[in-house]
Amino acid sequence: MAKQTIIVDGGYQPNTVTFKQGKPAELTFKRVSDRGCVQVVQSKDLGFKKELPLNEEVTFNIDTSKPGEYGFACGMDMVKGKVVVE
Ligand SMILES: [Cu+2]
């Protein structure tokens, strides 16, 4: 299982994560401050939308069956990041 963690602190650190095609993958978000507007993370591409409680880890399984770039963003679609499957 490939695992990556993104720290959410007004933005996404890092804002791009890469997974290998065909390998099971988990992406975790951990929001560590109230800065910015990133209390919700959503992705139409990856099929999730969830609140990020402060200082808690929220994990999504990532479908790595198809290579490509899959965007995610805050609840208002302003702060953006992406998952690359290659
Ligand atoms: Cu926002």
TrEMBL record:
Transmembrane segments: none
SUPFAM superfamilies for the chain: Cupredoxins (SSF49503)
Classification via InterPro entries: Cupredoxin, EfeO_Cupredoxin
A Pfam family recorded for this sequence: Cupredoxin_1
EfeO-type cupredoxin-like domain location: 6-85
Name the record gives this protein: Cupredoxin domain-containing protein
Organism: Limosilactobacillus alvi
